[in-house]
Structures are given as structure tokens and as C-alpha cells.
Amino acid sequence: MQYRAAKGMNDILPDELRRWRTLEEAFRRTVELAGYAEIRTPLLEPTELFVRSVGESTDIVQKEMFTLLHHGDSLTLRPEGTASAARAYVEHTVFAREPVTRWYYLGPMFRAERPQRGRYRQFYQAGAEIFGDPGPACDAEMIDMLYRLFVGLGITDVEVVVNSLGSAGVRERYREVLREHLEPNKGELSEASQRRLGDNPLRILDSKAPRDQELVREAPPILDFLDDADRAHWDALRAGLDALGVPYRAEPRLVRGLDYYTRTLFEFQSSQGGLGSQNALGGGGRYDGMVADLGGPAAPAIGFALGLERILLAMNPSDDAKPSPCFIAPIGERATLEALVLARSLRDRGVPTDLDGRGTSMKSMLRRANSRGARLAVLIGDQELDRGVFKVKDLAAHTEIDVPCAAAAEQISELMARAPLEPAH
Ligand code: AMP
């Protein structure tokens, strides 16, 4: 019996993982410079948390949650990170200690979707939240930070799409407007949209079905229904983006798949990486009502989540340098003991070191040293030990020197610290 990973869930092997680390490090650097601190929350949360925050009528809650019953408790693998962050913010009464909180997170999320390119059942998100700041300046600041992160990663075609959904009352009213607009042509809508007309008509704006799109295009835009305070927020957000020079497109049909958004909504799209309709690399928005909904104070909030797999697909494949280790190849028992000690002293000095413990032929160990991209190979056999030396080969320059055993760790780490030599001709 051979086992395979579960459908829609992927292994990430070391060669690929180097690119992940590059991306994750760029993300961490970016958010930490902007004052966000990392949080880690459990992968499992009470199911009710997601029903309450993500929204009962969303695809996520209706059909994409991995839920398990454990001794009568219903637990769900987190499908996104914002609900957990808001839950932790309330649970630990963070609001009582500081007026504004900036948190970020990185980790796997789980949604039982139909797998395709850029859409998986376990996928990774990097996200951040700001609690306690109602001002549009932080909306603009967040969008600009992400725009620059994308461009810095080489995703130069990234498009910033923004919208405002107004506060909760506006959304309620707009739902009715949309329902009234679409009802007369209900029969022409796709099956899914006909169902959504009842429970969540805003999602029809997101439909990919051509006839749905036509019908929706004629609907009055949500921006026409903003109240004065929402409009002031929207205008200030755009002024902020203009001041920062962030190019953006205002798209009144942008809705996104989560129910909790209020006012600012944004998404980053790219056609690099051949993602087709999966072209959203990330997005977010305000959710000024969620903290109170989860039993906390009326704290405003805004956040985003980026999909790491999609960003990696959109980034140009880079030739991330593999580390070039020092490779130690001993033959024989005595040599292996010397090699163990040398490997440990080199690592103590910060030198990446491979130890080949197979005890096979020198030739096959050297072949492996080359395929590992080693800078130096240290050959240890009885002959060398009798002379009190190790043989050190520079694998790029094809040169060879003897190094006294007693000073080997020091000399080798000095050699490793030098720039690699040009190959000898
Ligand atoms: P959301 O949490 O739905 O706002 O999604 C934020 C980002 O996460 C999206 O723009 C995608 O880049 C990524 N994402 C969402 N769902 C998936 C999935 N099933 N597979 C891969 N990436 C996803």
C-alpha cells in the first residue's frame, strides 16, 4: 500500500521551501518595520467562531469547513486567520492594555474547495490586523505597504482594486436594492446566483457567469449609497493612496467571500503566474463590527491575508542560492571519529557542514559533495591521519592543500569565509 497526501494538500520539499523562506522573510521584514508583532493561534477553533464572524451564508461556512466532533465539541480547522486574531484580542482583553494593536501571522489555513492551480485545501496565508484605529490613514498605509511588498517581490503587474461597502446599515440597504434590481430577471441568473438572491445577494457581484455579470453591471453601484461618514472615509482613503502614489482601481463590484467587511475593501490581483480566475494574490478590508460581535468592545479593525502559494506562482522563479557547505568525507573508523569532532567544531563556528557517514569510496563521496554544491571537501583517511593532516580540496578551484588536524577547524572556517576562487584553468 502506497500512501498519498490528502486531496488538495501538498508537501513542500526543501528545494521549493527555499523560495517560501525568501517570501516569508520579506513579509516579516515588511510588517515588522510597520510595527506589527507576530501572534500564533490554534489551528482548531470552536466552529461557532467562524459561523459567527465569517458569516452563515458564505461558501466557507456552508461547504468548505473541515469540522470534527470531539467529545461533543464541534471544532473546525481554521479557514482564515482574522476570526482567530479577533477572538484572541477579546479573550486576552488586549484592548484594555493598549489603544491600538498591530498583529501579524503566518500559517496554514484549511478550506474544502475543489483543488486547482492556485486553489488548495491546505494553503498558507500571511496576514495582519490593526485593532483600535478607525482612521482611513491606516487603510491607505496598509494598502501601500502591500503594494510595495508585491513590487519588491517582482510582481510588477500587480493591480490594486479598492471599494467601500459602507457601514453595516448601508450594506443592509444595498442588499435590498440589489435584490429589487435582479428579481425581475431572476430566471436568467445562474443557479448559484438565484440561491444567493435569497440569502446573500452581494455575492452575485462576484459571480463569474457572463449573464450574471451583465445583469449586475446595470445595477446601481454601492458607492452611491454610502452615508456621509462612509463617504468621508472613502475619500480620505483615496487621498491617502494618491499622496503615496499607489496606483489603484476603484471597483464598486468588488465584494470578496467573507461577510464581515465594512467600509474599505481591497484586493491585489496579478496575471503573472497564469492564475486565471484565481488571480487574487491577497486582499482584506475593515471589519469594524467583528470585535463587538465576538463579545468585545466596539473596536474598529482592518486586516488582510495574502495567499503564499499564489504569490510564489506569480513571482519569477529566482535562483535562490543554495548554501555551499563544507563536506567532510572520512574513510575508516578512526577517520570517522575525527570527522565527527571536526564537523561539530565547524558548525560551532557557524560553518554549514555536511558529514558523509556512509563510509563508501572517496569517489562516491566526492560525487555527492559536488552534487551538494560544496565549497570545500575535507578528505580524511588513514594515510592523512598518519601524517597528522586532513586533505582539503577546493571544489571550484580544483586545488588541494593539507591542513594540520589540530588547526583544522580554524583554518577551514577561514577558507570558507573567503570569496570562492575562480576555477583554475
Ligand atoms: P481570503 O481569506 O478568502 O480573503 O483569501 C485571501 C487570499 O488567500 C486569496 O487572495 C488567495 O491568495 C488565498 N487563498 C484563499 N483561498 C485559497 C485556497 N483555497 N488555496 C490557495 N490560496 C487561497
Helix and strand layout, with pairings?
Blueprint: H1 14-33, E1 37-38, E2 44-46, H2 47-54, H3 59-64, E3 67-70, E4 73-77, H4 82-91, E5 101-110, E6 122-131, H5 136-152, E7 159-164, H6 168-182, H7 191-199, H8 210-217, H9 228-244, E8 249-250, E9 262-269, E10 280-286, H10 290-293, E11 301-307, H11 308-314, E12 326-330, H12 333-348, E13 353-355, H13 362-371, E14 376-380, H14 382-387, E15 389-394, E16 399-404, H15 408-417
Parallel strand pairs: 1-5, 7-8, 12-13, 12-14
Antiparallel strand pairs: 2-4, 3-4, 5-6, 6-11, 7-9, 9-10, 10-11, 14-15, 15-16
Provide structural commentary.
The chain is 38% helix and 21% strand. By secondary structure, it is α+β, with helices and mostly antiparallel strands. It folds into 2 domains: 14-166 and 226-314, BirA Bifunctional Protein, domain 2, CATH 3.30.930.10; 326-417, Rossmann fold (3-Layer(aba) Sandwich), CATH 3.40.50. The strands form 3 sheets. The chain has an 8-stranded mixed sheet with strand order 1-5-6-11-10-9-7-8, with helices on both faces. Strands 13-12-14-15-16 form a 5-stranded mixed sheet, sandwiched between helices. β12, α12 and β13 (353-355) form a beta-alpha-beta unit. The chain is elongated. The chain starts with 13 loop residues before the first helix and ends in an 8-residue tail after the last helix. The mean pLDDT is 93. Adenosine monophosphate (AMP) binds next to β6, β10, β11 and α11. Residues 80, 111, 113, 118-120, 123, 125, 256-257, 280-283, 305, 307, 309-310 line the site of adenosine monophosphate.
